[in-house]
Amino acid sequence: KNGTWSNWGDAQLSKFLPAAVQLESLVLKNCKGATDAGLAALRTSNPPLRHLDLSGSMVCDISYLSGMMELQHLDLSLTPITDHSLVYLRSLGSNLKTLNLSLCGKLTDECGAYLVMLTHLKSLNLYRTSLTSVVCHHISTIGSLTSLNMSLTRINDDGLLLLASLKNLTSLDVSLSSVSVKGAAALKEALPKLTSLESSWAK
Questions:
Q1: Which helix (H) or strand (E) covers residue 51, if one does?
Q2: CA dist 203 → 61, 108, 185 (Å)
Q3: Tens digits of per-residue pLDDT, 86-116?
Q4: Half-sphere exposure (CA, 13 Å, Cβ side) for 73?
Q5: Residue 203 above 90 pLDDT?
Q6: Between vectors from CA 13 to CA 10 and to CA 16, what angle results, nearest 5°?
Q7: Environment class of residue 193 by beta-carbon count within 10 Å: exposed (0-12), middle (13-18) or buried (19+)?
Q8: Nearest-angstrom CA–CA distance, 48 and 131
Q9: What pLDDT is attached to residue 2?
C-alpha cells in the first residue's frame, strides 16, 4: 500500500503502477527520471492514493490526477509545474488538505485562479516562488486555510491585508518578503487565531 523510491524512472513506473490498485502512498522525491509519461499509468490502476510526493521530479502535466478523490496530501515542490496544469486539481477540491508548490519557478500569479478551487485546503506552501500580492486576491477566498507559507515571495503589505479574511489561519510565514513590521502587526491584530507569524527581515 506504500511505495517510496528515490531512483525510479518512467520505465519502472510504467511496469509497477498499472497493477498498484491498492496504493495509498507514493513517494518519488527527487526522482529526476519520473515524468508525466511514467505517471500516466495511474489512469489504469486508479489507486486510492492519499499521499503523493513528486517533489524534485520532472512532472508538469498531472492530468492523471483527475478523479483521484482520496488524495489529501500532494507535494509538487521543485517541479516544472505550470499555472494551467493546476486545473487538474479541481476534482480534488473537496478532499485535498495540503499542497506544496514551493520552489516551483514557472508559477505566476495566474495560478491563483486554480488554487481557489481547493475549497477544503488546510496548508499551502508557496515558498520561494515569483508570486506577488496579486495572488493574494485568490488565496484570501480559501477560508479553510490554517497554514500558509509565502516566504521569499514578492508579497507586500497590500497583499498581506487581503489575507485578513482567512479567519482560520494559525500559521503564516512571509519572511524575506516586502512585508513591513507595521503590516505584519496589523494582520496579527486582525487574525486572533494566528499564533505563528514569521516576518523576519521586515522593515
A1: strand 51-53
A2: 39, 25, 12
A3: 999 988 868 899 999 999 999 999 999 999 9
A4: 9
A5: no
A6: 155
A7: exposed
A8: 32
A9: 66
